[in-house]
Amino acid sequence: MADTAVHTAAGHDDHHDDHHGGHYTSTGLSNNKLAMWLFLGSECLLFGGLISTYMLYRGRHTSNLGPDQVWDIPFTSASSFVLLMSSLTMVLAVTAAKRHDDRTTNVWLSITAILGSLFVAGQVYEFTTFYREGLGFTTSLFSSSFYTLTGFHGVHVTVGVILLLSVVGMIIRNRIPGDKAEVVELVGLYWHFVDIVWILIFTLVYLIPA
Amino acid sequence: MSTETENATTDDEIDFREADDHVDHWTDLQFVYLAIGLAIVTAIEVALSYMVDDLGALFLPLLLILMLIKFFSVVFYFMHLKFDNRWFSILFYMGLVLAVGVYIAALLTFQFFSA
């Protein structure tokens, strides 16, 4: 019986090593993936608080520097489109990684990083424009909550770009221990999360008139 | 006895195996179609934002429905949560429900004190 138990556990381990690159776990699931989903769940709380704060303070501004006066909807829509398309390139990178096609994986990861960088550049341009128009971080409660919310999101995108480029470098140098597909998938989950947060911000912050 | 142990292990693994099989059924082209759909929904959202006066009370619900369609399309298909093990869903939705709870609680608190 002891032999059978060892054999079964080993079989289980083999199965996961073959298909998922993880180790045997009591849940039968990848601990890395569980941790990532738990982290994303906690990130929901962070952005939930920031979005709540913005929604409460969006009306607290000086008469000529409110959301309806400073927003540039066509520009922000283009940025949103760029981030949305980066989710597509990310998912294509994940499917390529599952096919063990390193070259294609790296191409899609690099394109995702470029699109992410483009989004961050757009945000920097937007912030600079607002600042020149007189909307500083401490100008009003509206501006503080807006810069905090979108700034935190921008930092998340920047971290995502760094993660993407790191994975590209690690794949090229063959430095990823275990299953590459799972690593790419984990970075992908983080990237898609950044995208869904922007989906909420774009509608709640930019499209709904104050 | 050994058969029982093996069967138990196999049963435990069923969710995980079936979940990944579904993911493999999605082709790159299907993901491209979904992304095009999401881009079209975004375009509709932007168009609606220019028709606030025309739509009146319909504006906000329409915009929120479109936002939720985009949100859950990415979560279900790009993040493949729909096909993955339910434990991942539980962990994610736990945070999401708490976040929505925080928003509602904050809104109600401010409403209470301002009144």
Structure description:
Chain A has 210 residues and is an all-alpha fold. Chain A has one domain: Up-down Bundle (Four Helix Bundle (Hemerythrin (Met), subunit A)). Chain A has seven helices and no strands. Chain A has helices spanning 2-19, 31-57, 67-70, 73-98, 102-132, 141-172, 180-207. The longest helix of chain A has 32 residues, at 141-172. With 115 residues, chain B is mostly helical. Chain B has two domains: 2-83; 85-115. Chain B is built from five helices and no strands. Chain B has helices spanning 2-24, 28-49, 52-55, 59-78, 86-114. The N and C termini of chain B lie far apart (69 Å). The interface between A and B is large, with 59 and 54 residues.
Using only C-alpha atoms, the radius of gyration of chain A works out to 21 Å
CATH architecture of chain A: Up-down Bundle
Portion of residues in helices of chain B? Answer: over 70%
User: Low-confidence segments of chain B, ≥5 residues, pLDDT <50?
Assistant: 1-19
The percentage helix of chain A is: over 70%
- Quaternary structure: heterodimer
The proportion of residues in beta strands of chain B is: under 5%
Structural class of chain B comes to mainly alpha
Secondary-structure element order of chain A, N to C: HHHHHHH
Q: What is the H-and-E element order of chain B?
A: HHHHH
- Anisotropy-based shape of chain A: elongated
Give the integer mean of the pLDDT values of chain A. 87
- Please count the helical segments of chain A: 7
